[in-house]
Amino acid sequence: MAMNRRDFLKVSAGSSGSLVLALSLPGCASVKTGFEEKDGRWRPDAWLELTTDNEVYFTLARVEMGQGTYTGLTTLVAEELEVAPSAIKPTFAPVASEYRNPLYKLQLTGGSTSLATSWEPLRQAGAEARELLILAAARVWEVNHRECTAFEGKVLHPNGADSLAYGKLVGLAASEEVRHDIALKPREQWRYIGKDRGRLDALAKSTGAASYGIDTDLPGMVYAVVSRPPRHGARVRSFNRDEVKSLPGVLDVIDIERRVAVVAGKYWLARKAQAELKIDWDNSEALNLSTGDVFAHYHQAADDDDGEQERSDGDVSEAVGSADRVLVANYEQPYLAHATLEPMNATAWYRDNGMEVWAPTQAPDLARIAAARVSDLSPDDITINTTFLGGGFGRRLVQDYIEEAAAVAYRVKKPVKVIWSREEDTRHDLFRPAMLHRMKASISGSEVTSWQHRVIGPQILDWYVRNAAPAQYPWSPKFLYDTLGKIGLMAEGIATPKDFSAIEGAVDYPYKLANVEVRHTHTDPGVPITWWRSVGYSHNGFAAETFMDELAHETGKDPYRFRRDLIQHQPRHLAVLDKVADMANWQAGAPSGRARGLALFQSFGTFVAQVVEASIENGEIRVHQVWCAVDCGQVVNPDIVRDQIEGGIIFGLTAAVYGEITLENGEVQQSNFHDYLLMRNYQVPEVAIRIIDSAEPPTGVGEPGVPPVLPALGNALFALTGKRQRTLPLRVT
Amino acid sequence: MALSLTVNGDKRTIEVDPDTPLLWVIRDELGLKGTKFGCGAGLCGACTVHLDGQPVRSCSTPLEIVQGRSVTTIEGLATDAGLHPLQKAWVEHGVPQCGYCQSGQIMSAAHLLANNPTPLREDIVAALSGNLCRCGTYSRIIAAVESAAVDGASESTRDGA
To answer: What CATH number corresponds to the domain at position B41?
Structure first.
């Protein structure tokens, strides 16, 4: 449609018809695009909304849980749109197919994928909107659009004097069409990408204004607390409903599946009443394991079954048979809790044949399935409002807390907020799986001739498909949800995709050895598990990089030179390894009384090398300094890369020194921060981080800082004490 | 019980169950959501507020000791003159990640600076070791408190001159 200056004035004056176009995508497109004249709002695509008041809204489809999507993804769209990131208002995305993570075909935030998967599409979206605005301005000015440029929310006239603000152009831009390829800005023209800039959410998070799930407040809202079975799998046989229901402030006491909810007008009255709740649990199908049983089970499973071969290079049997020596070691790693500082919570309101949910969730489309399961609604009747998340680390990929709130809301027909206590949050977490690793290597002379890594333990997808599979088919009838979950029908009709959660970081062993074998014995003791910051990489990294240290020691080589000699063929590994050795002045060694350990590890496409300097002081492990070199491709926000890597280091050190969930006859033994310890301010080491300059596509940084720090610390303690620790958490020996 | 208290300078009287910890009065009765629930046992510091200028863990503070006294929450830290120097420093240093613990961190730090305008690094670490941060923002917290202390000290020098 051609439009001249007069038409421009008409549209600007709001006298022409509305131009709302439906975006036509196959499947279930649900985001309306186009120009809404009465609101003066233009949605060029699913991501951006520009108003006649010069406001720019950006729909953030990857949730903000601390990892920096709020700033990082906004920066991508800002760069091409030619609007400062700070002038853009991010809003949390509703559930819509456009907002799915293309890697998972689910709308979830995890796997350190947000930046990598948004890098092209968001810059493209910004560029296309900018181009439409330029076309509109060029038509108004009757000049060649190629001679117009955009700068800080305005299109600039070729004469260098005139300009039009985007707000004046939105109505016109909606009817323009881009007929040419739009080149994304070259690296040297970037104004925002790669620059140290603040976080867009820092102010709201420094004044108490940022709203988390737990801060949801609705008119007439009531509170529920939920008693869950102390042993996973137990059922409610009976409980003293009438007695508890008569307590002050209590509105109802409800039996929801395997749980009992106390509903009250005030949170504290619900808690007080819960203390009087007596539930008779039927434990006939409940978990009855203790931690020792789990590892006995793993060893038995490993003895009985060699498992699936996941990688095989050369001939490990032949190498072992002809070796001078064979080194064998078992590594045992515990269950770990997430301990997000915001406990699990969700608010739900069932009314008018629909339900609205407010929750800190990493997977809003799975949340919709969870709410549909426990109500008479279909996913389309359920609206999920995502908030800021007070930490995620994988815990909020599971929607159990939302299912609870929805189940209670469906019964009480009032807005209801379910809040977990810290004790409930710890005991009813789904844990990073405990794993057993059987390592074996052969040595001839001073050379390692083979590497065998056997991973023994469960796979996370087995626990995750229940809601993930239906979320991929939200139109499927609800009676099929469990069938979909059971058969693991995921990823557009292909049976369950390969689950790498147990073997990630093991199969991709990077060192140049002729004979390498990786096997997985898939066995599940029935303890609830899920994703946890770096998941499989966390336990495989500890086993592999500690065993590498053992081999360096056994062959009488320096741990840095040993790795360096075997990684010549991997330039990005080599670069971070050399960089960290230089940063730490590795050759100089540690001061007296301290020792250093090193680890090199790739996860989520990001290369990380770390040196840890530690000692033992007053009977405690003391980490003095961590040096870290990281290559995550093109950096969008260096400040956030550094804070994510440093945060990952603290997270990993916390696991290395303290992390352990134990079970006694099926009951979790830890409950709060006195027995599930987190590293505190006085324990934090100096951390030095260098980012390798790179123009490779960006990769994730939320998780990759975690895995190497566990073996690096363990290796430092070995250098200090001469005693090798193969079980986590590390102890003072 | 009828609880009378002053919150961020405003006198309030509230009818509330006497066993309710201060935290839930602040959040649910007064509607000030910046103070966070983390552990309910005084172990994490997310709920830190000032009671007559002293930092307390509001999740474990009984109402009888609050009666008639003055509470300051994160919402009461800024003044008409603008953000508290710590809040400015938090933004400049990009301290918050998930941000959930930061109200408590800032309230602990504000008490430190009110009583010790030029703290040593050890003072800062000691004052803030009761506040957990799961994201691991500790080193930025220390840097932000140090810079707020420097700014505060230079301001008071100017004021004195």
So the answer is: 3.10.20.30
The pLDDT of residue B151 is 80
- State which of B25, B57, B76 marks the end of a domain: B76
CA A618: distance to chain centroid? Answer: 36
Q: Which domain holds residue B111?
A: 85-158
Q: Does A341 touch chain B (CB under 8 A)?
A: yes
Q: How far, in Å, CA of A432 to CA of A659, rounded?
A: 10
% of chain A surpassing 90 pLDDT: 88
In chain B, how many domains are there?
Answer: 2
| ipTM exceeds 0.90, yes or no | yes
pTM of the predicted structure, to 2 decimals? 0.95
CB distance from A267 to chain B under 8 Å?
A: yes
Q: Is the pLDDT of residue A68 over 60?
A: yes
Q: How many residues make up chain A in this entry?
A: 733
SS3 per residue for A509-547:
CCCCCCEEEEEEEECCCCCCECCCCCHHHHHHHHHHHHH
What's the gap in Å between the CA of B17 and the closest CA on chain A? 8
Last residue of a domain, one of B59, B76, B93: B76
Q: Are residues B70 and B11 in the same domain?
A: yes
Question: How many helices (H) and strands (E) are present in chain A, helices listed first?
Answer: 18, 29
Residue B120, chain A, CB below 8 Å: the answer is: no
Name the percent of chain A lying above pLDDT 70: 95
Per-residue pLDDT tens digits for A484-518? 777 666 655 555 678 899 999 999 999 999 999 99
Residue B86 to residue A10: CA distance in whole angstroms: 50
The string of pLDDT tens digits covering residues A87-137 is 999 999 999 999 999 988 899 999 999 999 999 999 999 999 999 999 999
Cβ within 8 Å, pair A422-B39: yes
Asked whether A641 and A691 are in contact (CB, 8 A), the reply is yes
Q: Which of residues 217-236 of A touch B (CB under 8 A)?
A: 217
CB atoms within 10 A of CB B115: 12
Assess A268–B contact: CB distance below 8 Å, yes or no: yes
Q: Between B20, B74, B140, which is nearest A207 by CB?
A: B74
| Angstroms from A199 CA to nearest CA on chain B | 6
**For residues B127 and A339, what is the distance between their CA atoms, to the nearest angstrom?**
23
Which residues 123-142 of B have a C-beta within 8 angstroms of A? Answer: 125-126, 128-142
Give the pLDDT confidence of A570-611 residue by residue, as tens digits. 999 999 999 999 999 999 999 999 999 999 999 999 999 999
Residues of B in contact with A198 (CB under 8 A): 91-92, 94
Q: Are A29 and A23 in contact (CB under 8 A)?
A: yes
Q: Mean pLDDT across the stretch A367-387?
A: 96
Q: Residue A469 gets which letter from DSSP?
A: H
Any idea what DSSP says for residue B26? I
Burial class, A324, CB count within 10 angstroms (exposed 0-12 / middle 13-18 / buried 19+): exposed
Q: What is the model's pLDDT at position B156? A: 58
Residue A15 pLDDT grade (very low, low, confident, very high; cuts 50, 70, 90): very low
Residues B117 and B52 both lie in one domain: no
The per-residue DSSP string of A550-569 comes to HHHHHTT--HHHHHHHH-TT
Instruction: Find tokens 């008779």 and name the residue.
Output: A280
Residues B37, B57 within the same domain: yes
CB contacts, 8 Å: B97 with chain A: 66-68, 643-644, 647
Handedness of CA B61, B65, B66, B71 (dihedral sign): negative
Residue whose C-alpha is closest to residue A707's, from A635, A640, A637, A645: A645
Contact B96 A205 (CB under 8 A): yes
What is the overall mean pLDDT for chain A? Answer: 94
Q: Which candidate from A207, A390, A686 shows the least CB-CB separation from B98?
A: A390
Which residues have CB under 8 Å from A171's CB, separation 6+?
A: A11, A12, A14, A16, A19, A35, A37, A40, A42, A52
The β-bridge relationship of strands A620-631 and A686-691 is parallel
Beta bridge partners of A252: A263
